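Standup notes
- DV: blocked on the single-chain target, sequence here:
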Amino acid sequence: VSTELSQGCARGCDLCSEFNGCLRCSPKLFILLERNDIRQIGICLPSCPLGYFGLRNTDMNKCIKCKIENCESCFSRNFCTKCKEGLYLHKGRCYVTCPEGYAAANGTMECSSPAQCEMSEWGPWGPCSKKRKLCGFKKGNEDRTRRILQAPSGDVSLCPATTEVRRCTVQKNQCPEGKRKKKEEQGKQDNGNRNRKDTKDTKSGTKKRKNRQRGATVPATAASPAQ
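- DV (later): unblocked, structure below
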């Protein structure tokens, strides 16, 4: 068993052993454990090397190995900041090609978001419609559009949608042809009522004339004087 020492340690190491190297580093330094055959050798570093990230604790700062596949440098155990050569970085992971809908930005190996497309302002909302009709309904849809001003790598398929649709509600609005039809039907109904009234009045007048004729008396003829 190796004896722990506080004297004769390497620079920046506060406590060490002959068998395991540094056991505790000076404040602000990170301890990195390197495997050498069956031994782990501790060394003190001002910053962690590639493939590791620094984790600061109150007792001791440590260099911890990245757990992300094909990662060369990481921010935390599960978030990569630089992939190995030839691989693309996207949201802390490494890929052979950028995921669908993304592309490498400005010649780098980092996949850019579609949000980096330069888009125009949204235009005004269009009229509320339903099945290409603008009347005769209560709930429909309205849309608005915008243009793509500039796309990364010139690929417009990476940009967000240029059309937006939302539900809309309008006051119940009858179509003009419906109004004309209803007006015509109303006119026919009024004419029918008028005709029925005229027929009724005609029948009533005829009945009155018949009643007057039935109730009239024949005037008496004067008797001739006796001869």
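- Follow-up: Confidence is low (pLDDT under 50) at residues 220-224.
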